[in-house]
Amino acid sequence: MNEIPISHILFVSTALFFIGMYGLFTRRNMITMLMAIELILNSVNINFVVFNKYLYPDKLDGIFFTIFIIAIAAAEAAVAIAIIINLYRNHQSIDVEEAEEMKF
Amino acid sequence: MLADFFILMKAELVITLLIFTLLFLKIGNKEWRNESLLNIINLLLFINLLSGFFIAKEGTLFGDMFRTNELLRFEKNMLNLGILIISLQSYHWLKQHKHVPEFYMLLLSTLLGMFFMISANNILMFYLALELSTIPLAALCNFDLHKKIASEAAFKMSISSAFSSGLLLFGISLLYGTTGSLNFAEISSQLNGSPLQLFSFILLLSGFTFKISAVPFHLWTADVYEGSPVAVTSYLSVISKAAILFVLVSVLYNVFQPLGSNWYNMLFVLSVLTMIIGNLFALRQQNMKRFLAFSSIAQVGFILIGITGQSAEGSASVIYFVLVYLFSNLGAFGVVALVSSLAGKENIDDYKGFYTHNKLLSWVLAISLFSLAGIPPTAGFFGKFFLLLAGAAKGNYILITIAALNMVISLYYYLRIIKAMFMDENKNPVEKINAGLQPKLALAICMIGIIVTGLISGAYNYIYSLVK
User: Fold this and answer.
1) pLDDT tens digit string along B50-71?
2) Fewest C-beta in 10 Å: which of A44, B64, B297, B457?
3) B120 three-state secondary structure
4) Which structural domain, as residue segments, surrounds residue A25?
5) Is the CB of residue A90 less than 8 Å away from at least one CB of chain B?
6) Is residue A101 part of a domain?
7) How large is the ipTM?
């Protein structure tokens, strides 16, 4: 059976990375921005798993790294959502455009 | 074997112990008065600082993931000293606050993250420690829960740090793909300058420059510094920046040495941009915290010059400058914290005529600003001198000339504050501030530090001997 070549999967992960970046820069809703960051982290996860499986199958470094990233992404999201809830209480909105107390 | 474990990880274990002590204080039945609680914590932090100077050993742990040596121990002691000074300075602010133990728990967990980051010998360990040191910081920025500006700052902090660690991670994953290892030494031996490796290095460097707020990635700095409580601002601008700089120097010098000619040019561009833009924006600031934020961006530009030296002198000069910067910036932030918490004023205009009622505090702020600007008798001059000397060793005199010109610009805006304090007229200047014992002690440590590290040449020689 033919395997999917590594370049295809790397293309998907890189595309996911830049989609996440694009989403982060264009979205105005704070929760959606968090989702964009999750996309970036997931693209990294794909990268690690693929490199581990295709190039260095005898050691499990990449897989372990992925597990840690998933755990940390959860922690990050928890803190960020707590901050957003508090921001909603102060500003009555989770639109980024509304949070503009400080400017140059 | 077990004794080794305890001695090698002593600094981290003491911090962990402190965090758990605070946790038990918090969940216990006894209601503590804030004053006594703060005094106990300050005493504990002092013991923590002292414990760093005894019983030490060099070695590695956990299959080469964690290492420690004399230099790392010295860096950790510096951070311990810094956190003690900040804790003493924020006494008045925390006295009125409901959540003192939580504040210290978050603060100490970020410090724990920084210790692990400095000691990391494996890129997985480094990443975990980096996240441990940034996620609680976002929560700390929001510590004044009811303030609009604080929640905005915390949101900016959490999103930009998450994005920067995303960039860093993508770089790490590509690096893992090209080298097949997570260990620093093995990565270094596999580097050959292929395009994919260079791309991954650029991503890694952008992650780092986000955290030290060098110029293309500096925009979060000013907002976060302005919105956070002063104690957190000084922590961000001194301790967390210092820790990242130590790691940046060691990663660039030990891991990415094979790509040295590539990153020399990147750092050249970064440092020129950082100095110029940091200085130009600092010129037009009206808020004191925002002003210090841009001045700290400009200082990072000078530090990057030292890093371009690519030698033991470069590394030593950066560590020495960070030591000097710790004293001078915390001196300035100490006065700003007092004025902000006791008089409720943060703008530069409020500092007009500051000298009329607060003679001693004006002098403290003036000496700290002189040291930041690099005027000779203070330590700041020698710090910048060694940085430029290390950078000049590469023979790139354009960089040094730009740096010298920028020092003149920076002198203008530092002197603007000094002029406002000593010369400008003001109908109702800041009233006499009764600083109290703890902040006075912190300011005294800063002043002694500024004078002593400048006048005694042993400080630089000691760091240099550690680096070699």
Assistant:
1) 988 887 788 888 888 888 888 8
2) B457
3) strand
4) 6-93
5) yes
6) no
7) 0.94
